Amino acid sequence: MDLLNLAWKNLWRSRRRTLITLAALSFSLMLIQAFHNLSYGVYASMIDSGVRAGSGHLVVYHQGYLESRDEKLSFNPHNLVEEIGQINGVEAVLPRLYLPGLAQSSRESRGILLTGVVPAAERKINPFLRSLSDDQWLTSLNGREAILGSRLMKELQLKLGNKFVVTMQHRSGELVSEMFRVHGVIKTGIKSVDKSLLMVGRNRAAAMVGSPDNIHELAIILEDQKFDRLVFPQLQELLKTHSDLEGLTWEKAMPNLYNAIRLDYASQKFIFVIMLLIVTIGVINTLLMSVMERFREFGIILAVGASTARLRMLVFLEALLLGLVSMVIGSCLGSLATWYLQAVGIDMRNFISETLEFGGVVFDPILRAGWDISWMAKISVYLLLLSLLAAVYPSIKAGRISPAAAIRHH
Amino acid sequence: MALIELKSVTKIYPLGSQEVVAVDDFSLSIEAGEFSVLAGPSGSGKTTLLNLIGCLDQPTRGEIWLDGREVGHAKQKTLFELRLRKIGFIFQAYNLIPVLTAAENAEFTLMLQRVGKKQRRERVLRLFSLLGLDGLEHRKPSDLSGGQQQRVAIARAMASEPAVILADEPTASLDSHASEELLALMQRLNQEQGATFIFSSHDPLVISHAKRVVRLQDGHLESDQ
Amino acid sequence: MLYQLALRNIWRNRRRTLLTLSAMIISSALLILALGIFSGMLRDMLASATEQYYGHLVISAKGYQDDRDMFRHFSMDKSIENVLKQDEITGYSQRLRSFGLLSHQQNSSPGEILGILPSQEQTVTGLQDSLIDGHYLTADDSNGAVLGSGLAQRLNVVPGDQLVFVTQAADGSIGNDLLLVRGIFSTGDIGYDNTLVLVPLAWLQQLLVLPGQIHEIAVKTDQPLNAAALAEQYRVNLPDALEILDWGEMLPQMREVVASYAVSRMIIVTILYLATGLGILNTFFMAVMERTRELGVLMALGMRPGQIRTMIMLETAIMGSLGLLCGAVVGIALSLYMALVGVDLSGTLTPITYAGGTILPRLHAVIEPANILIPSVCLLIVSLLAGFLPANRAAKMQPVVAIRDAI
């Protein structure tokens, strides 16, 4: 089309100006895409380690347990573990018990959260257990071996193999005590976990409070986080026959993690918005300059019979071309940056030597980007729309030119 | 010794991959107080010659002497100094600074020479009344007619009392009446103040006012009357 | 005159100048606001850890903070009292700590019990301001308890109810005694709300069989960010068996987050101003290029390249100063609004744990000089840099070429 061709040529008449504008647009797009993808990757890894160490991508609780954490709200899973395990996309189903109690060594006592697990299933999933060797891990559902958080072990002044007593309330209201032996120790980097974690076999824990078949939590780990939309409805379907149970997604079950991500992303978005505002002003400036400096030329175009609509169109086409070109260049650069951030990453250990907890999850110290292609496309289109928006005022200016005045103008 | 001496000056411009000889082995001598014109068709080398005398440009070969000093091969820094102290320019398109008032434009070179504010203003006002610009001191160039703008440009060129005033086609943008007026004015300044003027022009009106006409053709001297 | 010339050149193209200025003002004002809010979050996080629990400094027996060994206790003496008389110290609290099981009827829960003197504790932690039910401990209370909302809910108690606390005493016996719930606090930090109980110091000393003994003295100062230096200064005057730790040593994660904030702030400022800088660069280039002929004339009249450069740099400096002035004013106004009014997000966000502290669900700005100075100074530098390229280009022009080329 002739007008498009004219617009393209006009852009390149002032090469430096066009190049700087393109640079500002593409550079901003690159930064926004790269930073979003970096966060996307970091959030994904946070969610992954969060759900694996925590309550899973999806989770089943007794109604009301999530809010009150009342250990009396336990339930008998019957054959839910097997049924859920058969849903496509489910990697593991982990039944767990959580019982608050007191651990006592010969010198000290500390509040703990006794966690009853199925050792074989838990081992494969929980990232905190990776550091344990096989002979340190629990072997039976019913043994007296216990895994302790590192800080708890230190405060109780226990060593591997030492015995200690756990006291808690039986279902009947009586206080009951049982002896356990330190079998392994884990350090998560999350202070509240390290000072209260006590992991034992599920049946041993359940027997202590007198409800041998009951659990508090069914954590469901998916093969991929994306499957939650497929699996969740099927889970809800299964739970229809258990009116006392509720199925939840991780966003609901782990509000700390979910909100940490939301807050972090919100502050990032704020910066994105400022950046887009600034580049939009830059585009308005460029287009306005190019309109003002071609005042006379526009007058001549009008004088030879072109309509003002055509002039306005010309300005919009120039904005469109600016937007399109920077969309392409910016996305290429953004992809390149994402590729680098994924392959190499940013090693936070250079800045922060401690393990860092955020939203109840320990950060992987090497931040790595992930690909969020659909978002990248979306933000490119936004950029294009913004540059078109930036053309509104300059095009109105161009439309107001009167040919006689323009030709006289020098 | 003459005020201006050009000795076998040659100026060659690169033009793409070619070279253009704008001035070829040209010699000329101009005395103080002259009122001369370099005449010739466009492309004959007038403007190049004027630029060379005005220290805006330097010759490829040959020597240029200005006020007893060889300037053809002087350093850039010296050239700026020479332009500021010895040369006054008048351009075809006036080239006043649009953000400055008429008086400020005329004062500009004095400002660069760090002449005091009061002294500057006095000298410029004297020039303005001589040039018939009374009352226009505070106008912006865009509010002046072509003839008035060119007279402000003359005031600017004369304000620092340079050794020579170079005028490149000063009447080209003016109508014949304004041109006539302007030339009469410059002639008077030449006679009364002893200012040296060198024009470049192909306007017969200008040529008729000149005491000396140097005709150029393709970078060569054609005649000198 | 150069200055005047620069000023007039700026106003010559008013529309362009205003657009460029608006980009500068928007970027610096919003940046100042954003940094103020980030600082506010950081401040909340630090306060949640120090002003609700640890204090800025803690004096305890050597090694106590590492393993909280019940037997690492000490008693107050003259030399400690002298240290606590320093001007920077705004409050201190003697504490004895114990971990045990709390029960009420059929419910039990582990808890952390702090034996305190109410009048002292109030000068260090702000728990008395977070009460949602009942009242705080009084000086003559013999067996009262103030506990966190999560714990109260789990135990199903309200003020007036009885609690049983069981733990191991220092003599090896099992200590066991009754407490009366006086008040319930809610800080927003689950760590405290679910486990913490305040009881009278004398009550706990008797239960643990540690008469006259304490585990730590929590200290509040008026210079939280200078706590490490204060600790260093006080250390020499303390008995050898004791140590003094600042919050950074107790919460190394948080110390590093606070320290790395300076880096992340620079990253945000740099990125944003790169985008702004390109916009300014564009405008200044345009402003120079369209004046090519005029600049050539100025040079022909004898203006030196240095003067041309100065003139254009002056133009950018004026623009930069104007932009930073307006930006700072608008930014401070926005931050002030956010500091005084703020935005409550508790409807959409829960409190978030970060590096051992808690970020409260609110937008609340803190005015810190660095948050205003850094964006302002960087804006000026960016505009000078953006002015330098075109200024340099203008200074390098050949007058003949400049006059001829730009018709």
How many individual domains of chain B? 1
**Rg value of chain A:** 31 Å
For the termini of chain B, the CA-CA separation is: 20 Å
| CATH architecture group name of chain B | 3-Layer(aba) Sandwich
Tell me what the structure shows.
The complex is a heterotrimer of chains A (410), B (225) and C (407). In chain A, 53% of the residues lie in helices and 19% in strands. Chain A is of the alpha+beta class and 410 residues long. In chain A, the strands form three sheets. In chain A, strands 2-3-7-4-6-5 form a six-stranded mixed β-barrel. A two-stranded antiparallel ribbon of chain A has the order 10-13. In chain A, α2 (15-53) runs antiparallel to α11 and α2 (15-53) runs antiparallel to α14 (373-390). The longest helix of chain A has 39 residues, at 15-53. Chain A is elongated and about 100 Å long. Chain A starts with a helix and ends with a helix. Chain B has one domain: P-loop containing nucleotide triphosphate hydrolases (Rossmann fold), CATH 3.40.50. In chain B, strands 6-7-8-3-9-10 form a six-stranded mixed beta sheet, with helices on both faces. In chain B, α3 packs across α4 (117-130). In chain C, β12 and β13 (357-359) form a beta hairpin. Chain C is built from 15 helices and 14 strands. Chain C has a six-stranded mixed β-barrel with strand order 2-3-8-5-7-6. Chain C has a two-stranded antiparallel sheet with strand order 11-14. In chain C, strands 12-13 form a two-stranded antiparallel sheet. Chain C has helices at residues 2-12, 14-54, 64-67, 78-83, 118-121, 149-155, 190-193, 201-207, 227-235, 247-250, 252-289, 292-300, 305-340, 369-395, 399-405; strands spanning 57-61, 89-104, 107-116, 131-134, 144-148, 162-168, 174-185, 196-200, 216-221, 242-246, 343-344, 352-354, 357-359, 362-363. The longest helix of chain C has 41 residues, at 14-54. Chain C folds into two domains: 2-49 and 255-405, no CATH class; 63-240, no CATH class. Classes of the chains: A alpha+beta (410), B alpha/beta (225), C alpha+beta (407). Chains in contact: A-C, B-C. At the A-C interface, α2, β2, β3, β5 and α11 of A face α2, β2, β3, α6 and β6 of C.
